[in-house]
Prior knowledge:
Blueprint: H1 2-12, E1 24-27, E2 33-39, E3 44-48, E4 63-66, E5 70-73, E6 76-83, E7 94-98, E8 105-106, E9 119-121, E10 128-129, E11 142-144, E12 151-152, E13 174-175, H2 184-187, E14 192-196, E15 199-204, E16 210-213, E17 220-221, E18 232-236, E19 243-244, E20 257-260, E21 266-267, E22 280-283, E23 289-290, E24 303-306, E25 312-313, E26 326-329, E27 335-336, E28 349-352, E29 358-359, E30 372-375, H3 389-394, E31 396-399, H4 404-407, E32 419-421, E33 436-440, E34 443-447, E35 454-461, E36 466-467, E37 470-471, E38 478-487, E39 497-503, H5 516-526, H6 531-535
Parallel strand pairs: 3-6, 4-7, 6-8, 7-9, 8-10, 9-11, 10-12, 12-13, 15-17, 16-18, 17-19, 18-20, 19-21, 20-22, 21-23, 22-24, 23-25, 24-26, 25-27, 27-29, 28-30, 30-31, 31-32
Antiparallel strand pairs: 1-2, 2-3, 5-6, 14-15, 33-34, 35-38, 36-37, 38-39
Amino acid sequence: MKKIIFLITMLLCMVSATTFAHDIAVKNDDGVTIYYVWTNNKTELAVSYRGNSYRNYSDRYWGNVVIPASVIYNGRTYSVTSIGGEAFFCCSGLTSVTIPNSVTSIGYYTFSVCSGLTSVTIPNSVMSIGDFAFSGCSGLTSVTIPNSVTSIGNSAFEGCSGLTSVTIPNSVTSVGGYAFSGTGWYNNQPNGFLYLDEWLIGVKGEKPTGKLVIADGIRGIAGSAFYDCSGLTSVTIPNSVTTIGNSAFLHCSGLTSVTIPNSMTSIEYSAFYGCNGLTSVTIGNSVTSIGNYAFYGCSGLASVTIGNSVTSIGDHAFSGCSGLTSVTIGNSVTSIGNYAFYDCSGLTSVTIPNSVTSIGNYAFSGCTSIMTVKSYINEPFNVTGLFAEETYRQGTLYVPTGTKDLYIRFDGWREFLNIVEMGEEPAPNGQCAKPSIIIAGRDMRYECETPDAEFESILTTEEQRFVGDRLVMENKDIVYILTVYATAPGYDRSEPAQVKFIVNRNDVNQDGSVNVADIATIIDAMAGKSREEKEE
C-alpha cells in the first residue's frame, strides 16, 4: 500500500496539476527570486512555488536557496512565517536551503522528491513538519529536528534513503504514519518492533499476533504503527505513553480490549478505526480529546465511558458502533462533532451535559433505538438532523426546568413530539398503561387498562414532504404511522403505541389530487367516520 502511495508521489512530478498561483515575487540580495502567497489576512507571507502550478513554471528553484526572515514589498515589511505546501516540490536541482527563524511551519510535500537536496537546517522556530514534507529526498544525508517541533507528519521523511540517522526531540507529541519508512535508518533496522528515541514507530517484517505489551518508558506510538495487524487480540499500553498516533491500530479486527492509560492526553484520528472485535475500552482521566474517526466502525464495542477530562469528541468518533448500548459523556465535554455517534443503532438513551456548547450535524442520527434523551443544556441551539426520526416520534426529550419553550424554537430539538421538563414532579400514580390499538374490519378503537384514560393520537408519514398542500410522493406507496398515547388523572403520559398503514394509492380520497385532504380522510376513517358522514 505504501509503495503505491509513494509511487503516486513520484508520478506527480511527471504530470501537470494546477493549484494556486503565487501572489508576489521578491528578489533576494543574492539575485534569487522567491515567490510568496499572502497569509493571515495579508499581514504575513508563505513561500510558494513559481508560476501558477507547482509543475508548470519556467524557472525552477535550484542550487542554494536562502529564504529571508522578512521581505520588503511596496514599501512595507512582511515576515515570512511558513513554507507552503509543494513550494519546492520536485525541484531536483535544489542542493541546499536555509530556513529563517521566522518560519513556524513546513507544509505538505514542501521538499518532496528534491533528489538533489543534501542538507537542510530546520530552525528552532518550526513547530510542525507536514505530510510528505521531505519524502523522496534521496540525497539528504542528515537532518536535525529542533526541540521546537511538536508534530511530524505522515511520510514526512519517507524514501530518504540516504538518511541514516534521525533524532526525535522531547518536544514532539505526534509522529505520523510511515514518517521514516524507506530511510537509511529504517532499512538498516532488523525485523521486529521499531523504536526511535522512546517512540514506537511500527513493525518491520511479520505482523505481531496475540497479546501485545508495549514496553514501559515508551512515550508515544506513531501513526499506522500497527495498521492491519488483524491477529492482535489485546494491547497493554504503559502509563509512560502520552500519544497514540493517527490510524495506529487501524483495522486491527482481532483486537478485543484496550486500556487507555491516565498518561494519555489525546487519541488521534482513526486510531482504532475498524477494530470491529473491540468490545470494551476504558479512556483514562487525562485524555482531553478524542479525534475524528477514532473508534469508527467498532461494531463490537458495547459500552464506553468518556471521562471528565475530555473536552471534545471528534467527527465520526464513534460512528457505526452498532453494538454500543450505553455511553457516558463527561461534564467537561464542550463539543460533539458531526456524525459523532451516527448509526449507533444499539444506543437506547443519551445524556448531554450542560458543558456542551457545540453539537455537529447528525451527531446521533441513525441511532434508531434512542428513546430517552436528557439534555442539561440551558441555552439550546440549532443542530441539523441531530436524532433519528424514530427518536423524534417515539422518544422523550427531558430538558431543564423552564426551558421547554426555548427548545421548541430550535432545529434538532423542536422535532420531538414529547418534551418534558425535568423539574416537573412525577405523577403520584406513576405512568399510565400503554394503550392498545384495536382494529376489526373497518372499525378501530383504543383501549387502556388505566381507568378513565383519554387518548392522544398523532398521524405522520415515513416521508412527510409537501409543496404547498401537495404531497411529493407520486408513484410510491405511503406508509402512515399512527402514534397513540394514553393519559389519565394522577398518571404520567403513557409509552406510545403505534400502528402502520400502507396506502397503495396516493390519492386516498379519490378527488384527483394528492394533498393534505388525503390525510384528513385517513384520520376520519380512523375515527370511524365515512366520507358521507363528514359531509353531512
